[in-house]
Amino acid sequence: MSSPTIPYLRKTKTSSQLIVNGKPFLMLAAELHNSSLSDAEYMRTVWPNMKAMNINTLLGSVTWEMIEPVEGKFEFAELNKVILDARSHDLHLVLLWFGSFKNALSTYVPGWVKTDIKRFPRVHVSESGAVTRTEELLSPFNPRAWEADAKAFAALMRHLNEFDAKYSTVVMIQVENETGLLGDSRDRSKIANKLFKEAVPKELIQHLQAQGSSLHPEFHKRFPGFQTLTAGASTWEEAFGKGPDSDEMFMANAFSKYVGKVAEAGKREYPIPFYTNVWLNFDDPSQLDLQGLPTTVGGGATAGVYPSGGAIGRTMDLWKLNTPALDFISPDLYFHDYEEVCRQYTHQNQPLFIPEQRRDEKGVRRVWLAYGSYAAMGCSPFGIDSVLEIDSSVTRHYGLLGSISKILLEKQATSPEDVMGFYFDELSETTTEKTWTRTFGEFKVIIDRAFVFGKAGAGAGLIIHQGSGKFLLVGWGFNVSFKSTKAGATFTGILHAEEKTVDKDGKLRTARVMNGDETRSGEFFIMPNDDPDYGGFPIAVTIPARTMIAECTAYSVEEQEEYF
């Protein structure tokens, strides 16, 4: 019997929050390299660094070959050691099930699966000259493969229920990894070719048509005439067009059903939150944030260059239909427009979790946007165990986020519209300067890069509207100014400002009063960098960052004619 306090998702106003041990939990997460969690001895060199970097949750893989090296004989001894050590360091885990699929291949299945191609047939792809090639990828059309995977995954979840339910060390599960097919837009095996010529399942067409305007925007963009189809009378090509589009939807249906069967088997054993992750595609290279890197790192523009059949925007609603045991779908976000991907993966108010992203300063500062504007449950820089510097980007950002997590979680749950995250990258010849704005109550809030006489630095943070013109400011490297939305307002300024500290219970305490010079006489409030560049100006007019938390109150006046 499962514990009544196992991790679960609780619906909020526009999303969901992860509840651990009965309380909302903000994951300050990071992902290990793929092999790290397989060895408890190695992980004993890692745990202290993770704690020192202010991480509270680690993502790491559990592979099918690791727990079932011999069919029907399950081994959990090494995993148990890892879980116990994580628990002793007060760290949580998100386990990544590398079962049948990892990065659009089947490289983590046991040897007895790899070598038995009669029982577990492979996907075939076309090469030039119509020659087919066998891939190291299990066919998603083969029930024996998903049955074997589901059996192993169910055994894992049953074990976690027995071993960890009372402690909630493991808080979530990722089912498979970046599922799909590389090298071709669809499987060209005999069984796949036969099924491709058959009609699209009637229930699939009916479900998608019933969604109407709530279907994912990327689906509407790619298939604008879909509402006119007759359910049950259309082949894949008739429904979705000849070529890669119909191939991709065909593969998405197959892969999602497969993953759905595996997830369902595990959920029956231990119903903690489940998700799967996605290798992103791109339609327009200008949407990518490449910094001089080749466009190939962006995932790919055609199905088969990125994994065909994965849960990208236009296939997401199909995936959601076929995987009811998954609680949400997550993007692996490295080189795409960060905000656009956050929008796409909060589709229909599903919670946002970013299981893989860049671990450098540029990548980590973007988490403020996810946590602030999109109520993210967590973000997870990849390859964290090979970061040896304790004083890293992750340490600084997560330390500040952790200090205000109680306040942020409350706002995410009750009034997410009162929170806004943002960032500013280092200035360069290619930097496009951006002003972030949003209206809260009667004030338009304007956020710019922090002013200095020398070279302005990078920045990141969030603001929380507390009502009656009062705002909590968290972060560094930005200015905040206000403009009244009242038609009759003739002046808007800052009434009062204070630097804040946070005590061990997450409550704010007043430190320095910051009126006058620190608000430029009420014009704007500066959240400075650690070491502002004075540019040779002899007067130190900008103070360095200290607590990086402040509270200021905006006000406006409405003057009558007689005042002029």
UniProtKB/TrEMBL annotation:
It comes from Oidiodendron maius (strain Zn). Residues 17-205 form the Glycoside hydrolase 35 catalytic domain. Residues 394-525 form the DUF5597 domain. InterPro entries: DUF5597 (IPR040719), GH (IPR017853), Gly_Hdrlase_35_cat (IPR031330). Keywords: Hydrolase. GO terms for molecular function: hydrolase activity. It holds the Pfam family DUF5597. This is Glycoside hydrolase family 35 protein.
